[in-house]
Amino acid sequence: MAVATLTTKPLTPPQKKPLPAGQPREWYVSHNRRLKAMRLTIALLDSGVYHPATADNRRIRVTAEHIGVHAPSDTTCRMVRALIRYGR
After folding, report:
1. What residue spans carry the Low complexity bias annotation (predicted)?
2. Burial class (CB in 10 A: 0-12, 13-18, 19+), 44
3. What is the dihedral of CA 78, 72, 15, 41, to 10 degrees?
4. pLDDT one-digit tens code per residue, 24-59
5. What is the DSSP code (8-state) at residue 35?
6. pTM over 0.90, yes/no
7. Which of 2, 21, 54, 58 has a CA positioned 20 to 30 A from the CA of residue 75?
């Protein structure tokens, strides 16, 4: 009887590309805020937080510390809850 072996490749982050030049500063701020919110949302979903009501600001900030990003603002925390809500 043959035995199946599972081989996994180490995950590598996607290549970073420079942001397009010539945009207003607000565009870059909102772009980076959306990226941070997506990273935090994915980390919360992976940890078992599936409802926005259970993702309070404290829990989001603890998750940010755990994954190694700066503590998010209240606006970013609201975006994370919105992503959890609309991802269902």
Report:
1. 1-10
2. buried
3. -40
4. 999 999 999 999 999 999 999 999 999 999 999 999
5. H
6. no
7. 21
